[in-house]
Amino acid sequence: MVAIRVSLPVPLRRGFDYEYERPLAPGVRVRVPWGRRVLTGFVIEVPADPVPGVARRAILEVIDDEPLLSAAQLQLLYFAADYYHHPLGEVLFAALPAGLKRGRGVAAPQVYVLTPEGQAAADTRFARAKRQAALWQAIKAAGVMTEAALKALGPGFGPAMRALLAQGLVERRDPERESPRALSPSAVTLRPDQQAACKAVAEAYGRFAAFLVFGVTGSGKTEVYLELLAQVLAAGGQALVLVPEIGLTPQIVARLSARLGTFIGVLHSGCTATERARVWSAAAAGHIRVVVGTRSAVFVPLKHPALIIVDEEHDASFKQQEGFRYHARDLAVWRAKQLGIPIVLGSATPSLESYRHACQGRYRLLTLPDRGPHSALPAVRLIDLGREPLRAGLSVSLIEALRGCLSRGEQALLFLNRRGYAPVLFCPECRWHAPCDRCDARLTVHLGRQRLRCHHCGREQPVPQACPQCGHLRLLHVGEGTERIEEALRRILPGARIARVDRDTTASRLSFETLLQKVHGREIDVLIGTQMLAKGHDFPHVTLVGVIAADQGLHGSDFRADEQLFAQIVQVAGRAGRAAKPGEVLIQTYHPAHPLWEPLTRLDYGAFAEMALKDRRDTLFPPYAYCALLRAEARDPESATRFLEAARELAKGPPDVALGCVLPAVLARRAGYHRAQLLATSLNRAALQGWLKVWLPRLAKTPLASRVRWSLDVDPYSLF
Ligand code: ADP
Ligand code: ZN
Ligand code: ZN
Question: What angle do CA 138, 142, 146 make, to 5 degrees?
């Protein structure tokens, strides 16, 4: 009998030893007894040092003949577990699609092609069957589509596909016997800057190199990706394309399918467990050549990996915010290095981390300065709210601009950034903002407890009844809601066709798509919305964008607030004037003199980055310093804080690592839990990692560790 070390999906930071008649390869799944349950686990190794003196239980069943996870993939997951200090068993299982966790086998994905009758069908045939029409068109454009890609087009797949199959217009095939359709030639001729970007990446095939494609929205980044993907496919390779959650639209899937004419595996949060497992297995077998997916797709196995692309690389959704808190972009870079292949990061507003790498020459910067001859960038103008009274959140200038826009028969978009968990207290009379007297920072309103708090030093005070500077009695929490704006607009612009887009109004993807179609069909004049609107959608007739409450971003108490505000405004500005019409962006602010506006009104990312990087250097935040945030929460008010204080004691005097104070979280109470946090910072990543390795096991042994819920967030995206 041989000892086999197995990793199990349990929150313990170690593997468990079992017995089997022969050695098993790492990456093979097994079923083992765990207490009185049976769990599926992964073989990690045949340990040279089995835990002595314990009776090992026997492995009940070996599921795989061949390891499900390749050596390279195991290595990636080991690295991730190590770097994010998360239990390996949970990492392995977080990376795996649910369908494989339960230990079932997986079939290849179903693909659909048109029959000759389907090819010949006229689109009038589907006049009264919208879903069927959509599926038929998608397959027609792409030649072949996987089930997951078709389902990504919207709900109602099942009945519509059954109808198409019954009419003999579509047939289902096994992709392993399907040879991919030839690549379609590009519909556009790449501009010289796009060609140069493609050439630079192409020279790096077969070795690791990181590229940052920096170009405003509409500058043609996606065309560059398409060209690179076509090259990779032509050479028989596979590619992984990571996109933000909000960026995985039917449009992008259709665009990829139309150009690449190959099996595209689509992975997103809406996929069923079976679909995920199928894409996963088909990619591992090399049948699916391009995988497009959100965050967790970074773990997809590839048989012939040749290229990784991360679109909108700055997007927050690449960072998992709970459980196994990995950053998909960062792991993608690690993976590209491990595999020896190039990686392309793309953005109009790169993360400061990536931009700094590019400035230092660690990533190669590929700039697409142009937006093509037919669409200039919009003009950006500030509206000084100190001089203009607001009417239900809207200034006179904005209302006038809206009227003008509507009278010309054009469309307007009003954008409200709602990342407003941290409202600030503000006097509309004298423009006083509740400041912290010990820091250069503003206090945040904590509504629940009616207190003002500084998130930098922890100082707290009651909410004043009147403005301490001028005595004005109606102090405001800066922050507006989409609903209120909509209501007001209906009064101000009677007759205008107004629609609101946010998570409440467009819970389903279909209603969102329907709304977008209405905008395209010019059935809507004014669209009010949140971040959902900011990405990936072209609105050719929108010529006016109003940013209603941008100041929230100026005073956010988080270190990434400015970066996010800049990115959001560049994104929404990108919505305006994409066709031949010039666009205008109006930003309402009480602080026209804030330094952020200068680069923003010029949409000058370089100038912004220079300013923001200096700020990060002065305040010791990424990319100049490396952070790890220890969060704790408990039902009673004190335990979380006491646990963190104890953690701080344990860590006394670590070399090279600075510990902050134990502070309540911005949302100090959530779902009945009192929450607090402790930030560790170091100028040296290795020093921070080394110290965490010593600190965490000691921490886990403190008495309170089992009584509070706690977690470590390495490279936290934000301090919320
Ligand atoms: P991004 O991904 O940077 O937002 P896209 O690649 O989507 O930009 O390009 C925006 C629009 O411009 C698309 O409709 C695209 O087809 C078009 N386009 C991009 N590059 C070219 C080109 N070289 N010639 C003509 N049209 C182009
Ligand atoms: Zn005042
Ligand atoms: Zn302070």
Answer: 75
What three-state secondary structure class fits 505? coil
- Calculate the alpha carbon distances from 188 to 86, 277, 376, 592, 600 in Å: 46, 35, 19, 41, 31
The alpha-carbon radius of gyration of the chain (Å, integer) is 27
pLDDT at 107 over 60: no
Give yes or no for a contact between 575 and 504, defined as CB atoms under 8 angstroms apart: no
- HSE, side-chain direction, 13 A CA sphere, residue 217: 24
Q: CA–CA distance from 424 to each of 499, 556, 686 (Å)?
A: 29, 8, 37
- Between 157-166 and 130-142, two packed helices, what is the crossing angle to 10 degrees? 70
Q: Which of 191, 212, 222 to mutate to test the pocket of ligand 1 (most atoms within 8 A of CB)?
A: 222
pLDDT at 454 over 80: no
Greater model confidence, 679 or 122:
679
Q: Which residue is associated with the tokens 């400041």?
A: 435
Q: State mean pLDDT over 404-411.
A: 92
How many angstroms does the Cα of residue 439 sit away from the middle of ligand 1?
A: 46
DSSP string, 343-405: EEEEESS--HHHHHHHHTTSSEEEEE----TT-PPPEEEEEETTTS-EETTEEHHHHHHHHHH
Alpha-carbon distance of 181 to 422, in angstroms, equals 52
What distance in Å separates the CA atoms of residue 162 and residue 164, rounded to the nearest whole number?
6
pLDDT tens-place string over residues 596-636: 999 999 989 999 999 999 999 998 999 999 999 999 999 89
Residue 440 alpha carbon to ligand 3 centre in Å = 7
Residue 231 has pLDDT above 90, yes or no: yes
Q: Is 222 in the pocket of ligand 1 (CB under 6 A)?
A: yes
The span from the CA of 316 to the CA of 324, in Å, is: 15
Model confidence over 64-90: pLDDT tens digits? 888 888 889 999 999 999 999 998 888
Structural domains in the chain plus CATH codes: 2-95 (3.40.1440.60), 104-370 (3.40.50.300), 379-420+480-616 (3.40.50.300), 626-714 (3.30.70.600)
Phi and psi at 248, nearest 5°, equal: -90, 80
Q: Is the pLDDT of residue 38 over 70?
A: yes
3-class secondary-structure state, position 339: helix
* Residue 438 buriedness (CB in 10 A; 0-12 / 13-18 / 19+): exposed
- Relative to the alpha carbon of 430, which ligand is closest? 2
Q: Whose CA is nearest to atom 10 of ligand 1?
A: 218
Each residue of 349-359: pLDDT tens digit? 999 999 999 99
- What are the residues whose beta carbons fall under 8 Å from the beta carbon of 200, sequence distance 6 or more? 211, 364, 366
Contact 197, 330 (CB under 8 A): no
Q: What is the pLDDT of residue 54?
A: 77
The secondary structure element, H or E, covering residue 677 is: strand 673-682
| 562: region left, alpha or beta (phi > 0 left; psi from -120 to 50 alpha) | alpha
Residue % of the chain over a pLDDT of 90: 42
Whole-number Å distance, alpha carbon 228 to ligand 1 midpoint, is 14
Q: Is the pTM of this model over 0.90?
A: no
Ligand 1 pocket check for 223: Cβ under 6 Å: yes
C-alpha to C-alpha distance for 328 and 315, rounded to whole angstroms: 10
At 498, is the pLDDT very low, low, confident or very high (cuts 50, 70, 90)?
very high
pLDDT band at 181; cut points 50, 70, 90 = low
Angle at 130 between CA 125 and CA 136, to 5 degrees: 65
Q: First and final CA of the chain: distance in angstroms?
A: 51
Name residues whose C-beta falls within 8 Å of residue 268's C-beta, 6 or more positions apart in sequence. 152, 245, 248, 293, 294
What is the predicted pLDDT for the residue at 624?
95
